TrEMBL record:
<protein>
    <submittedName>
        <fullName>Winged helix DNA-binding domain-containing protein</fullName>
    </submittedName>
</protein>
<dbReference type="InterPro" id="IPR009351">
    <property type="entry name" value="AlkZ-like"/>
</dbReference>
<dbReference type="GO" id="GO:0003677">
    <property type="term" value="F:DNA binding"/>
</dbReference>
<dbReference type="Pfam" id="PF06224">
    <property type="entry name" value="AlkZ-like"/>
</dbReference>
<keyword id="KW-0238">DNA-binding</keyword>
Amino acid sequence: MHAMSDTQRRTRLGRRHLLAPSVRAASAVSVADAVVALHATDAATVFVSTCARLAEAGVDTVERALYEDVSLVRLLSMRNTLFTVSSGLAPYVNASNARAVAAKERRTFLTHLHDDGNGLGENWLIETEKATLAALTARGSATGSELSAAVPALRTKITIFPGKKQETVQGVATRVLRVLAAEGLIRRDRPRGSWTSSQFRWTAAESWPARELAEAQAEVALRYLRSYGPATEADLKWWTGWGLGQVRTALAATAAEEVQLDSGAMGWVSPGDTEPEPALEPWAALLPALDPSAMGWADRGFHLPAEHRAALFDRAGNIGPTVWWNGEIVGGWAQRADGEPVWRLLSDVGRDATTAIEAEASRLSEWVGETRITPRFRTPLERELTA
């Protein structure tokens, strides 16, 4: 059995995730495919993650892919989380994860409608969805507020969890749009405000080519191993949100090979991917909260010292902005109110690393310009740096 050292894993991460300067990409689609999926819960993450990996960083490049070419699309998929993937991979992510998420979203919403006790149910939802799609088609693109003005049913309010401690009154517009988006009938268009905003307009979406569940899961697993391998069963299970049986079936379908990790665990790589890769030039990176390179494994021990976790994660397990040196997380960063990037090193990495990090901070400032980035999930170190 081949062995795969932590050093080799960090080299793979730098090359395959396009983080070293010599391997940066020319397009946003190349970046998305290199990491399989970009976290999109926080709108800014898609842009900062992509630009960190582009040879020529720029907001326009990402916006063009999202809203003009539609070569990047957002899907509620793995772990019921919003991700951005390439349009070529989207049918597989849709079949492997998003369809199940959409079905759950619809069931949950119908349960809330039933529990409200006002006679709203599946027929009401179907008619409301038809009216919403008709209004959106007529306008081409619209915000949730604009659609609510056009469709009276969207202004309905229901009581969630009636009679329980968490009882609350909620408007249905957001839930209806969430279900339609999860089912791929509408997609997020340009937001109101800047590229950091999550107040999206909506537009009609084209349907994806059909893919069978097993085929789709095998394809997603293979893409994951090519980008993140070696990875354990637990890593793939966590990243996809699949059951263990589905993970093992998908690994078998890819003909994945086992390797021995420094931790003593068995990892998996794609077929034939067992040979060591040559070392990269020294590299530094400033990556955003929820970046895929930080969130791609359940066990991050090979690139994240355990003593750094408390400063870099929130209580829900979301990682904040991170500073990297040669494939290892060595600190965190933030953006002050005046726009200046500021960071703190948690590892002693030497003068060469500090110089490279300063250069990356300058590159970040150049393309971000006057925009201010505040992560949705605040972490202890990020809060300290912005205080």
